[in-house]
Amino acid sequence: MQQILEAQQGWWHLDAAPRTLAASPNRPAYGPDGDYFSKPNRESIVEAVYEVVRERQPWRFPPLDS
Asked: How far apart are CA 27 and CA 39, in angstroms?
């Protein structure tokens, strides 16, 4: 799905390009630390959604501070 949407640009029917959030391409640590660093966490999800919303209406949504 990620290859079709991002690499092959199969999103031309949509208003904006979608963004996919995948796990990091690494071997995670065991336990809760591995879950936090290898899976998409809340911060990365919120940032990705905010970028898509801001792309549509930049005057309503100021940039997030990094």
From this structure: 11
